[in-house]
Specification:
This protein has helices at about 10-20, 55-60, 85-95, 120-140, 155-165, 185-190, 215-220, 240-245; strands at about 1-5, 25, 35, 40-45, 65, 70-75, 100-105, 175, 195, 200-205, 225. By secondary structure, the chain is α/β, with parallel strands linked by helices. The protein has two domains: about 1-155, 3-Layer(aba) Sandwich (Rossmann fold), CATH 3.40.50; about 165-245, Alpha-Beta Plaits (2-Layer Sandwich), CATH 3.30.70.20. The mean pLDDT is about 95. Flavin mononucleotide binds near residues 11, 76, 78, 79 and 212.
């Protein structure tokens, strides 16, 4: 089984590429929980603020994972995996398992604040399949990585999320008057946090109903989504091309 979490499609693409024939692909954003007895377990996700996405942490905690033969993680990130491997190992150890192998893949950054140039995006996407192939071989050979388990969401991660929320005000999401009610953001929002009302996108009031996945702000063709002070532009918008086709 491969569990994935993905806002803008990088992790979806990696998870799907690593999948073996007949193996189950579980979307942590929409499935209630994962149930696994033996077999291999892969977890593919983006690094958020130096750790695993908080909603993925909650998903792993409530999942029923019993003695997988081999466990691996692939973190897609703009820079690095932060402490996410240590966090995942901690969560798996709590279930009597472990994390055998972990690897990062640098991919286009979905966090609008650090968006890459289109040239860099093209370069990274050009290299993705080679990197995935390499990881696939290592997993097939049962390679192991030394990882020290650490409790998820340490002080540094919490502080970055706090600053992100407070300074940038990203928890306050809204659409501008340029929103034409096309519904693209609704299709991308797996949290069901966006509705079209009177021809405009309206976001849920509580940030607790949002994965902070940045899919909506990247997908909007009008660049009409605002996260507090954070806005997007045509040049900075990013959705993985294969994921874009899937959501269409
Ligand atoms: C809220 C948020 C926080 C992020 N924090 C980090 C980070 O701390 N380090 C990093 O390397 N990339 C960070 N990124 C970039 C993503 O990890 C990266 O683009 C990832 O591949 C996106 O995966 P997805 O397309 O599957 O959603 C962040 C992105 C978002 C939306
Ligand atoms: S994608 Fe943009 S234009 Fe379309 S409904 Fe959402 S906010 Fe409005
Ligand atoms: S509202 Fe936007 S950021 Fe929040 S879960 Fe939906 S698509 Fe992701």
């Amino acid at each position: 089984m491969i569990v994935y979490f993905s806002g803008t499609g990088n992790s979806y693409y990696v998870a799907k590429s690593l999948l073996k024939e007949g193996e189950e692909l579980v979307d942590a954003m929409t499935a209630g929980k994962a149930v696994l007895r033996g077999g291999r377990l892969g977890v593919v996700y983006p690094c958020y603020c130096g750790d695993m996405p908080p909603a993925l942490i909650a998903f792993i905690k409530r999942s029923d994972i019993d003695k997988p033969d081999y466990t691996f993680a692939v973190c897609t990130c703009g820079l690095n995996e932060g402490r996410s491997f240590a966090s995942l190992k901690y969560l798996l150890c709590e279930k009597g398992s472990t994390l055998d192998y972990a690897e990062k893949i640098v991919m286009p950054d979905s966090c609008v604040l650090f968006a890459f140039s289109q040239k860099k995006v093209g370069k990274l996407l050009g290299k993705q399949d080679e990197k995935i192939k390499n990881i696939k071989e290592k997993i097939a050979n049962g390679e192991r990585t030394e990882i020290k388990a650490k409790k998820p969401l340490g002080m540094r991660t919490k502080t970055v999320w706090f600053m992100f929320g407070r300074l940038m005000g990203i928890y306050k999401k809204y659409s501008l008057n340029t929103c034409n009610g096309c519904g693209t953001c609704v299709k991308y929002c797996k949290a069901g946090n966006i509705k079209i009302r009177d021809g405009k996108a309206v976001f849920g009031k509580s940030h607790k109903n949002c994965y902070e996945c940045f899919a909506c702000i990247n997908a909007c063709p009008q660049c009409a989504v605002r996260f507090g002070r954070l806005k997007n532009t045509e040049e900075k918008r990013y959705i993985h091309p294969v994921y874009k086709e899937k959501i269409k």
